[in-house]
Amino acid sequence: MDEFKVPSDLGRIPGKIHCGEGFSNFTADQWRNFFLIYATVALWNHLPGKDRKILTYFVRVCMILVRRIVEINDMKEAHELLIKIIKLIEECYGEEKITPNLHLSLHLCKCSYDYGPLYSFWCFSFERMNGLLGSLPNSHRQIESELMRRLMTEAQINDIINSSSSEVIGLELLDKRPSVSFLSEFLTDEMYRFLMNSRNISESPITGCEEFPGKFLAPQSKDIHLEEQIYDLLIEYYEDTYVDSIFRKLFTENLPNSTIIINRANRYGRCQICAETFGFAAATRHIKSSFVLAKFINRDGNSVDIYLGQIQFFFEHSVHLSSRNLTHKLAYIKWYKLANLTSRFHFSIDDDVKTCNVKLWEDSFYPSSRDNIIPIHNILGWFILVKYKKSDRSNAREYLAVIPINRKFHLR
After folding, report:
1. Pairing between strand 246-249 and 258-261?
2. pTM > 0.70
3. What whole-number distance in Å separates Cα of residue 174 and Cα of residue 339?
4. 140-177 core/surface letters (b: 16 or more CB in 10 A; e: else)
5. Domain range annotation of the chain
6. Count of beta carbons in the 10 Å neighbourhood of residue 298
7. Which of 185, 203, 224, 346 is 20 to 30 A (C-alpha) from 131?
8. What does the pLDDT look like over 285-314, one tens digit per residue?
9. Which of 194, 201, 402 is nearest to 298 (CA)?
10. Pick the residue with more confidence: 200 or 233?
């Protein structure tokens, strides 16, 4: 379990997991992390074929249902998979294993149609509130009444703060508590535009100068020179992005109607997009949040594929184009190599690649190219990686098992 490189804000599960009663203290949040992150890789070689199917279908269902934004077609897929899971359990383990909870799971999608995604009414928030209540000081005697008095007092204070009365003496001493949610800092329509831009890169190509719900974070270096190789790649990026324009370096041949690309940029180590902070490879503290998935338009111009890589740094670069100054928000990313098809879909069921929740990739990067520079809008989210061998042989080839993580608001 320790080999999984999990970003710190995704939570943790106990370091030692024992069978049976050892799982009884798992919270709902820990169960979610166990199945979405650890279960497929950790259990695959220990399960027979039917149990692999059950696990794969269940992980896919969890991946769909715990999103903050869920599409109707995905809900239908989740419901169909739940039916398959229950039929497989009945076939393998008998009718007595079909518990009331399994029956109730068939109503999850109907509940979501009525109340929205499960995220809006599941029990994680109650667990978190129970933890907060348990951490409050008390006399260990009349805990319930003490907590209720405290909650009522704080509610009255909030009412005073929110009132516009100027007659309350000392009101300036009471200030509203800042929200702990990063999502509250951004307007809904701003996040929606970012969501649509990220999803439809083939229909509305992104240049990098579009607005995004977030900001760059330290460490930062202002007005620096990019390495010559990266400078060349940046010019290639602009040539691919603005196909009707001509770009060149300073002090090179003055082509007609050409635009000079100045080798000056602001470099950053981290980028906050809504509630998530993406790190970079050079910082040990942030390296686990530097592994990202991103979208690419294929060479045919018609299809879009997802690739995975590691962020080296973020940067802002400005170029004067069409009588205005355009500031582009970009990321420099090294991309992992694809494994062959047989290895890549090792965790699939019945050779159906669509059932593959975890894919294998090569543990090496592609050579540097223009594709190393992308707009931050093309970043889909994090992935978690762990080294994996398909067999127990000492000379077995080592791959990277890649587990994609749902975003705080979901992109596809």
Report:
1. parallel
2. yes
3. 58
4. eeeeeeeeeeeeeeeeeeeeeeeeeeeeeeeeeeeeee
5. 8-125, 182-404
6. 10
7. 185
8. 899 999 999 988 777 767 778 899 999 999
9. 201
10. 233
